[in-house]
Model the fold of this input.
Amino acid sequence: MNGQTLMLPIRIRTMTAKNVKINVPFVNGGTTAAAQEAMNKAIAAANQDLLKEQGFPSKDIQQMDGTFEIKNNQRGVLSLSLLNYSFTGGAHGNTLQKSLTFDANKGRSYKLGQLFKPGSNYEARLNAIIQTQIKARQLPLLVDYPGITPDQDFYIADKSLVVYFPLYAIVPYAWGFPYFPISVYEIQDIIDEDGPLGFMMY
Done:
């Protein structure tokens, strides 16, 4: 990975249907055609997964909005979140979130464990940090803290790794998505320096 790719141009594709509007980001330059294609395919697939999980298409959908947030677009790292809100009746709707992190020069996407050195026991380290934050913030857990999983949700925001959990997973709905920002400097000894987090340290 290198930092030659700074700000990738991001454009929007909009999908509309009855009661449905989905804005999907796509990379439109700034890196190789192969890297663009790989990232855009991954983004499109993640969006389709969210739609499927929300039950689309369905006549029960009264409102569905798909949006996205660019969390990091610098130093050769693109990290973003796709959000899908669906309302089918009842007290409130449901929002799903899926985040993707890429080496923008190669188009490679990363799972959480791939950000760290092999054998680093990153799970225990991150769990300890998150549990400390839960206690300090006095979060009202619905269940005992379950720990992170191999497919744990996360994104990178500048010099922080942000781990998060779905709605209802560990805290009440009113608290929204529980986010746990972790400075790269707090975990720099276990970070893979050739991966996205490593490049954010400098």
Notes: The two ends are 13 Å apart (CA to CA). Confidence is low (pLDDT under 50) at residues 1-5.
